[in-house]
Design goal:
Layout lengths: L22 H15 L6 E5 L14 E4 L5 H11 L4 E7 H7 L4 H7 L4 E6 L34 H7 L4 E6 L3 H13 L4 E6 L9 H7 E3 L9 H8 L5 E8 L6 H11 L5 H9 L1
Parallel strand pairs: 1-2, 1-3, 3-4, 4-6, 5-6, 7-8
Antiparallel strand pairs: 5-8
Helix pairs in contact: 1-6, 5-8
Length: 279
């Protein structure tokens, strides 16, 4: 069997993102990661919510579903439970993931669903023409905030660490090679992986120059098993560290817990259950 190449995973639909959008690089990194792991296309499912980045499934030659706003994690969880052998990738943006969909992250974390969630964070609502998002810095001027937004931004990694997500990382779309390697490790991780990708929107909030200045690799010697150290690094908002902040590979996944319950449950039939209810 010939080893797959990245372009073997490219879909027939051409991306309609703006030229220069960071999401193009994310798509490239995902395809490279899938090829590196030699994953069969028919064993991959990509789910999304709503937004610019959520158009992602159409651009891959895998199974995919474009869901509804903020509900990608329940959707991806259902796919994984129904088809445990499938590699499940959830994708979306900072609005979809950290605003309307933010309430689903702690539950995916406590269940430790075996899926990879890639959040393309451009700190703006791009598809709806530039409103401030949950990660927009305080004071950002946009069409919807002409005097600057008065809300403080969320810290996605600190939030994920507080929820005890079992794999947490940050990438920058300007560094495709490093992003690809993190995607590979996230896809191999047995449990819930959340990756914040700093992915600039060149049309409404171009942050390439800013991220080129403030991003740098995690300090040499950082132990991804040290959650407290990861929290301290995530609290540094002046330097945007890139890499794997935290990883816990000893926790059972949601599917493993289900299989354990199924093994313990008595063998019965629906008829027997109905009969017992009549007594």
């Amino acid at each position: 069997m010939t080893k797959p190449k990245a372009n073997d995973y490219r879909g027939d639909v051409k991306p309609i993102w703006c030229p220069g959008c960071g999401d193009h690089a994310v798509l490239t990194a995902v395809m490279r990661a899938l090829a590196q792991l030699e994953l069969p296309r028919e064993k991959i499912a990509v789910a999304s919510g709503i937004g610019c980045s959520s158009r992602f499934p159409a651009f891959l030659k895998t199974y995919g579903i474009h869901g509804i706003h903020g509900r990608v994690l329940p959707l991806a969880t259902g796919i994984k439970l129904g088809s445990p052998e499938t590699t499940v990738i959830a994708v979306g943006g900072d609005g979809d993931g950290f605003s309307i969909g933010g309430g689903h992250i702690p539950h995916a974390a406590r269940r430790n669903v075996d899926l990879t969630y890639i959040v393309m964070d451009n700190s703006i609502y791009g598809m709806t023409k530039g409103q401030p998002s949950p990660t927009s810095p305080e004071g950002v001027v946009s069409r919807a905030s002409p005097y600057g937004t008065q809300e403080r931004p969320l810290n996605p990694l600190l939030m994920a660490l507080s929820y005890d997500v079992s794999f947490i990382a940050r990438c920058f779309s300007g560094k495709v090679r490093e992003m690809t390697e993190i995607f590979v490790q996230a896809l191999q991780h047995p449990g819930f992986s959340l990756i914040q990708v700093l992915s600039p929107c060149v049309t409404f909030y171009n942050t390439y120059g800013h991220y080129n200045e403030v991003t740098q690799p995690l300090p040499e010697g950082h132990d991804p098993g040290d959650r407290l150290s990861a929290i301290q690094l995530a609290m540094n908002t002046e330097t945007q560290y890139l890499g794997i902040f935290y990883r816990d590979e000893d926790r059972p996944t949601y599917n493993q817990r289900f299989e354990a319950v199924q093994a313990l449950a008595p063998e019965t039939t629906l008829d027997a259950i109905f009969e017992s209810l009549k007594r």
